[in-house]
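Please discuss these two lines.
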Amino acid sequence: MKLASNWRLLMVAIGLATAGCSGAEPADSTIDERTSREVSERLKNSIGNGPQSLVCGDGKCKNGEDCSTCSADCGTCGTCAHDLCIAGPALDAACDPMAAAICAVDPFCCEQYWDGLCVSEVASVAGGSCAGVCGDGKCDGNEDCKSCAADCGTCGKTCNHDECVAGDKLSAACSKCAEAVCAADAFCCTVAWDGLCVKEVDTYCKKGCEVEPPKCGDNICDTISGESCSTCAADCGACPTCGDGVCDPMTENCQSCAADCGSCGGTCDHDTCTTGGPLDPSCDKCTAAICAVDPFCCTSAWDGICVNQVQTVCGDSSCSGGKCGDAVCDANAGESCWSCPGDCGACGVCGDGKCDSMAGEDCWSCTADCGSCPAPTCGDGICDAATGEDCGTCALDCGACGGTCDHDQCTTGGPLAASCNKCVDLVCQTDMFCCTSAWDAVCVSEVGSLCGETCTVTCGDSVCDGSIGENCSSCAADCGACPAPACGDGVCDAAVGETCGTCGIDCGACGCDHGVCETGNPLDASCDPCADKICQMDAFCCSGFWDGICVSEVDTICGQTCPASP
């Protein structure tokens, strides 16, 4: 559309030069555009075969002639069929000197149709003015659905509150501000005008709203003001409870809620001072106490940290090696700034001048130490919907849209093009995956949640139809219950703790496919003397995953320095 507009402006500029009108202002870039074919024809008609001499009486009303300067060619001045500031049928150049001036450089206006561009040329070519005329077919900046329904449409029931007040969804036609907010955040005009939409009024409209302080019941779960599921269920939702089928790591573990988290599954085949497989809380009181604060010890592995907690949690110093409180930071005993700050010192804190990634600091969580995160821009590798990036505005970050219209929005399949219809466009603005990768079951569900349209649901018809996204997870009634993952089913399922160390039959044997300074699959203790030391203190590294903590232990346990990441 931008290209067509530039061609139209080029055509008018050439027409101005041909007619000898210097100094005219360029046409407004927001005017109506026509197809490139129409622009090409208009450009040809305006340019003709080159500059022509001004001859009154040659039977052609052009090249600066009008009814007032050459009635022989242009006829006598009369009355125009409609106002020059209103789009409509083509006007007779003889009806008004300004019409004659416009048609001299833009014959389309007097031969085909007096459109929005012709209206804009009242100012740019003829020196007149058409500021905000209600009924000209354009919803100008000073018009909205309230002041000019003829151009902007009726407000309807979706303009029942101000933009600065949270409530029902607003229509983009309510005001220019509502239109700007909804263009950036479709949720505000399709679901609800919530507190975030109110905040966006300031961002996109430069209109300050007197925003009330967060309060329970405003539909925003504001953790900064202390809201949580326990203090404000209305905003944050109900708190998880034992027996709801979801193991919430913040409040539940295998000991406190086996119904949701499953049994701990440990054994008692080694003592608490020896690293090895997970222990069962029933082994002894100390094991139960440790597993209550660190479930990893009874679900995954009894590693060096678990051994160290025999002293810190149970107060039992019978385990050999260093102990917390002896003024020695003994990494071989699992001591660190987290487990024993008395010996190892406190972990880094935000504001100490050091960007400590081990303490979870980054540009988002601690700008004082790590600096501000760079502002999102097209080309930074992040498709940021908050700044309006999508496959159409920034293919560099979001990928090419590339969709087609070979199936409807209620059927899963390949990605759809946003141009297919308004609903597909709205879904793709919110969920770009639907127009770049695949129109999956989530996209189909968004037809209802975003567009308010209903797709026929067939779950329960005894046919497991994968074409509409039915599977054992989405429709057990048709497809049957999903089998529970188990070691030996041929699938290495990390979600249930399967690794080469815990289920070799599914995941294969652990090996030495990377160095100790690289994250990856668990290493075999025989790979490297340092790997052997680390695995003695942190068994997870050789049975679960060689993660960033394992890499950091190359320094703290082995006394070796890993090269800095490139």
About this structure: Residues 19 and 295 are 85 Å apart (CA to CA). The chain has 26 helices and four strands. The longest helix spans residues 2-19. Confidence is low (pLDDT under 50) at residues 1-53.
